[in-house]
Design a protein that fits this description.
Largest sheet: 2 strands, antiparallel
Low-confidence stretches: none
Order of helices and strands: EHHE
Distance between the termini: 42 Å
Mean pLDDT: 76
Structural class: mainly alpha
Number of helices: 2
Number of strands: 2
Helix content: 40-55%
Oligomer: single chain
Strand order of the largest sheet: 1-2
Number of domains: 1
Strand content: under 5%
Shape: elongated
Amino acid sequence: MPGFFLPLTMLFVSPLFLVALSALVIPVLIHLFNFRKYKKVYFTNVRFLQEIQQETKKQSRLRQWLILLARLLAVASLVFAFARPYIPASNQQKKDYQPTCDQCLSR
């Protein structure tokens, strides 16, 4: 298998769309400026509530980071989809395939 580990280069049909990767700044700004102010509600058993509040803050922070990651991946995947990446075929692999769908009703 001498030709199995050939270096693959990815090219883009519309590389100008990669400029839109700068749009990744928008979800980061939304994340940074999305500070929620919590209402303080006083109860008699403050120690129990402080433990719950610390746990929910940790969960909330993790959830916010996961949401940010999902937003960044969504924007980046849209940008790469519009840039239309492809891997050029080497001289040995020049085969054109055309997918077809047979819709005849014969059995």
